[in-house]
Design goal:
The chain contains 22 helices and 2 strands. With 490 residues, the chain is mainly alpha-helical. The chain has a domain of 244 residues. The two termini are 23 Å apart.
Length: 490
């Protein structure tokens, strides 16, 4: 079975699915208007996804992950569990109306972007003209070694760029291996080393993004290349993913308490060596915080609780509608924060998620560091009301869509769009409107830099480790510079 990224979803399928979903929800006791708004959100989101060009384009990936993780999966889960949509919420109809208008803003932004984006992307001619094995090793060395030589003032700036290099170290060899074998194989030593290095960094920092990001990058690169998998392999990957989430997600959540502990290394090893105890600690922690937070399901659903933004967005929207709106300052601050730290040493640390969480009473007064995620829809409504969700959010969506599509283009043109897919999978649903600004500025600069450095400098660095002649005899049987590979890669 060949797996590749879709360009569109059949609207007839979407219509049937939404119709059945709404009918089931109403029969289970959901408010009719609420169910209709939820169905309309999914329908318009699918239209926006198709208009953007599907997962072949960065804009389509932003729409996909935003629609699915903000409320899409949660909406379906409520129906499966037999729970009315309005349970455990403060302002369900208003919140779903904000989401629906937000999906319309996505559709309008996608429509405008499709009309004005260039046919040829900025990086269309930036080809991988050297052995991919050398490029992967070069990217790995840049990602691992460069931070050791930077001053503290430059560390924060480089970290914004370093993600692209660590992702490319995993993805480029995987992509090349899959293409050169007709999608039958993806494994190679270079990607394994890069994956292990990045994953260890995530484990050491107790970061979900760091832990799961490299594995997701591997999967994205394989799918972008058109990987062929058997049913047995697919079941194995799904089982391994479920097992990792079951134990590593609690590990990262519990481990955050020890980030500043002098014995952090010992704590990390202990939590990994005792996964069952770690999970029990996580469950006790979840029981304690359940009364402090916001939830949508009658009983805790584990991972599914993390795959929906709707209950916490509902709390912020309810807070806003009760006469306590925000201002446009947070959105303006995102643009200001784009300026590198070494140019503005006293630049304030932005923790708007923490600030919003205090506003809705989710965190104690003394907690000024815990990061809480909100979707772009709730922040737009909180900061600017209906004008914020209709005009401001639409404009910021368009900014991100145009810049990202102009830079990377379609996966049919080159591989660079996969960097945005990985980035948006982690940031689009829960990164506020900040993600649109950072994607169009900081991350785009890192993508452009990574593209040129990986094709011009990384091969030179990698050649000191693996000479070109040797790499041709290694685990990449077909060099990217060969005409046969160019015909498929490009």
């Amino acid at each position: 079975m060949k797996i590749s990224f879709p360009e569109r979803v059949p609207i007839s399928w979407v219509t049937s699915f939404v119709g059945v979903l709404v009918a089931v929800e109403v029969l289970e006791g959901s408010d009719l208007l609420l169910a209709l708004l939820g169905g309309a959100f999914l329908y318009v989101g699918a239209l926006a996804f198709n208009k953007a060009g599907g997962l072949q384009y960065p804009s389509g990936s932003y729409i996909f992950f935003t629609v699915v993780i903000t409320v899409g999966l949660g909406n379906v889960a409520k129906a499966v569990l037999g729970e009315p949509l309005q349970t455990n919420l403060l302002a369900p109809t208003l919140s779903m109306a904000v989401y629906f208008v937000g999906s319309c803003a996505l559709y309008l932004a996608a429509t405008l972007n499709t009309a004005i984006r260039p046919r040829k992307s900025l990086l269309a001619d930036v080809k991988v003209d050297a052995i991919v094995l050398q490029i992967g090793i070069g990217c790995l060395i840049i990602s691992a070694i460069t931070p050791l030589f930077l001053s503290d003032s430059l560390q924060g700036t480089f970290s914004q760029f370093n993600a692209a290099f660590s992702f490319l170290a995993v993805m480029l060899p995987v992509y090349a291996r899959a293409r050169s074998t007709g999608g039958r194989k993806t494994f190679n030593v270079t990607s394994l080393l890069a994956w292990a290095f990045a994953t260890f960094g995530g484990l050491h920092g107790f970061s979900k993004q760091g832990i799961f990001g490299p594995s997701f990058a591997w999967i994205v690169a394989a799918i972008a290349a058109g990987v062929i998998v058997s049913a047995r392999k697919l079941i194995f990957v799904m089982a391994a993913t479920l097992l990792a989430i079951t134990f590593l997600s609690p590990y990262s959540q519990v481990g955050r308490l020890y980030r500043d502990d002098p014995a952090v290394n010992e704590k990390m090893i202990y939590l990994l060596e005792h996964p069952q105890e770690t999970r029990e600690l996580y469950e006790r922690q979840s029981e304690y915080t359940a009364g402090l937070g916001y939830h949508w399901f009658d009983k805790g659903q584990g991972l599914m609780d993390r795959l929906t933004m709707f209950p916490i967005d509902d709390a912020l929207i309810y807070y806003t509608d009760n006469g306590r709106p925000g201002s446009m300052y947070p959105i303006l601050s995102y643009f200001y924060n784009v300026i590198p730290t070494f140019l503005v040493p006293d630049k304030p640390i932005l923790r708007w998620g923490n600030y919003y969480a205090h506003q809705i009473g989710m965190l104690g007064e003394e907690d000024l560091t815990t990061g809480i995620s909100f979707s772009p829809f709730s922040e737009a409504y909180h900061d600017g009301g209906w004008l914020g969700i209709t005009v401001v959010a639409c404009g910021m969506f368009l900014l991100a869509f145009y810049v990202c599509d102009w830079v990377a283009g379609s996966l049919k043109q080159n591989i660079w769009a996969v960097l945005y897919i990985v980035y948006f999978s982690l940031q689009a649903p829960e990164g506020y409107l900040r993600t649109t600004v950072y994607a169009a500025t900081i991350f785009t600069i890192s993508v452009i830099s990574a593209a040129y450095i990986s094709t011009k400098i990384a091969p030179i660095i990698g050649s000191f480790v693996v000479p070109a002649a040797r790499s041709r005899q290694g685990n990449l049987p077909l060099p990217v510079s060969s005409p046969r590979f160019r015909s498929t890669y490009n």
